[in-house]
Structure formats: structure tokens, C-alpha cells
Amino acid sequence: xxxxxxxxSLTVDEAESRLPEEELFAHLLxxxxxxxxxxxxxxxIVDVGCAAGVMVLVLKRRGYDAVGVEPDRRARETAxxxxxxxxxxxxxxxxxxxxxxxPDASCDLVIASSVLEHAADLxxxxxxxxxxxxxxxxxxxxxxxxxxxxxxxxxxxxxFGWYPLRLKRRFMRWAxxxxxxxxxxxxxxxxxxxxxxxxxRLLQRAGxxxxxxxWRLRLPExxxxxxRLALKLIQTLPPxxxxxxxxxxxxxxxxxxx
Length: 258
Hints:
By secondary structure, the chain is an alpha/beta fold. Helices cover 41% and strands 17% of the residues. Strand 1 (44-48), helix 3 and strand 2 (65-70) form a beta-alpha-beta unit.
């Protein structure tokens, strides 16, 4: 189910309450990425669509040179107030995925969690991520899936993930105008849904090389014996991987600069 409100509208207290959850997530994510992209202390990490900058703060606490990019003024102001309350720096720049306010080849890792599906220009957003990355940089993103009928972008529409793209976008725009509670009261609803094939084509056109899907990113030690066996089979057998993508909502990818 979609959350009651979009993350950019969280209060300072709500943002602070997410710190423990984000710390656990950052620990897991960095372990997963570490097998494919080495991040030294001080590495430059950019969180695109960072909302109030909670992940930025978590990454800075871990010793990284982290910065957020966020288009929503309210969220940037919340980040400032959270920074003042905690007495810790939370750098959040005004910007969009399509126009990152960062120099060329200046970043080691770009992360975008539940962001790219909302981009007005998806291909430009991917090219921007490639532009700001160093020659050995990487992009990780978590987003929607067109394979799974269950999704988190809108409530009240069964099997929404399988709707034609044009119909999805029509419903999303209608909800923003008429039923904003169905889409978390966001003014920028999801417009894009990913499949492995589409993702591969988009990333290759943007200048990325190797692509690692969410199943390759997962660690065997994250679960018990049944989990490890299932993960091995999904990683090895394409038909099972397809079925897993149908049953598990959303998608996630790590991609390395070509």
C-alpha cells in the first residue's frame, strides 16, 4: 500500500523517527553493493530525491562524503531543521534528477530510491547520473516493476502493475487531481514502470555497462536454508527469475559506468 503521505512532506519528528530504519537499510545496501563497487571512506555519494535527507545523514555518519538532491522546498527546509535539531550537517541541494547540481565525473555512487519512476524525463535523468559519475562509478536505483501486478504507487486498483502504460499514467494523473490520498498526496506521481529488458536498453543508451539485478545483489546470508536455495535457483534459472519478478513488487538494479 502507498504510504499516507509522500516522503517529501514528512515533519522533522517524522523524519528523525526514520533514522533507525534507514541505518539498517544503509547497512544492508552497502553490504550488497560492496561486492561490485568498492566505496572507500570519504567516497562521494549522492542521494537523488533525498526528501528530508535522512539517508544523507546516515551515510555521513558512516564516513562518506554524502549529499542529497531534492526539488521540493518543504523537504529541503525540513532537512535544515533536522540538521539544526541534531547538530549534524545534512547537505541537501536544490535540483532534479534531470538536472543534478553537481560537476561532471565528481561522484562515486548515485542512489535513487523510489525516484526514477517519477522523473519527467527518464532518459535524461539516467544520462545525468552517468554525467556526474567517475569513470569507475555506479548507479543504484529502486523503482517500479511492470511485471508484478502488486505495486505501491496507487491504492484501490487491483493488478495495476499489468495495466497498459498509457492507462497507468492516466489513472495516476487523475488521482493527483481528484483523489490525492490514493497517491500519498504527491504532486509528482509515478510515470514509469520497469522491466529487465527496458532497463537494460535505457541504461545502455545512457552510457552504463554491467547491470546487476536485485537477485544478484542479494546476499545468501540474508536468510535461512530455504532462502539460500531459492535465491540460488532464481539467480541460475531465467524462468524462475521471471516468476520471482512477477511475484515480488518493484525492482532494483546496480549498474556500473561502461
